[in-house]
Amino acid sequence: MNGNASAPSTSQIATDLGRVIGPLRRAILRSARSAEGLPDLPDAHIQVLRALAERSPQTSGELAAGLNLARPTISNVLRVMTTARLVTRLPGADDLRQAWIAPTDHARDLLERYDRASSALIDTVLSGLTTAQLTAVADALPVLQEITIGLAHRADDVD
């Protein structure tokens, strides 16, 4: 940016970012599904599988808190995912009323295939960018992570 140009307003950046992020996520998901012949898993299912891939098993309450979802929402998602054999419920050792949630081997395989396909697709698109564009994307990643953390903290404050 040259010295004469004023910085864009935060409200305009917020609007533009919101307009770009959603379609970007959907395009990655749709392209990866198509490339790898993956089932049409809802985004909420993929988020649950990602959380369980990072730490498993978890209780439904832990998943709800970690994903900033209401308990009834996560319960509904887990019910569908259990029926689809994507997660399994393990009884609690001390309290049989408590269930621990873990991904199935099938779900882990789907997530690995999705990650492999999406990384390959993004790599292909990135290879068509200029050096300046690649640098801009690389420089934006830590900032996007900070925005993600900031939004998660705001959601925690609202709950």
Large-scale geometry? globular
How confident is the prediction overall: mean pLDDT?
A: 88
Q: Note the total helix count.
A: 6
Element pattern in H and E: HHEHHEEHH
Structural class: mainly alpha
| Proportion in helices | 55-70%
The N- and C-terminal alpha carbons lie at a distance of 39 Å
- The Rg value, from CA coordinates, equals 19 Å
Low-pLDDT segments? none
**Record field, number of beta strands:** 3
Q: What composes the largest sheet?
A: 3 strands, antiparallel
The strand order across the widest sheet is 1-3-2
- Report the sheet-strand fraction: 5-15%
Written account of the structure:
With 159 residues, this protein is mainly α. 69% of the residues lie in helices and 8% in strands. It has 6 helices and 3 strands; from the N terminus they run H-H-E-H-H-E-E-H-H. A 3-stranded antiparallel β-sheet has the order 1-3-2. A hairpin with a 7-residue loop joins strand 2 (87-91) and strand 3 (99-103).
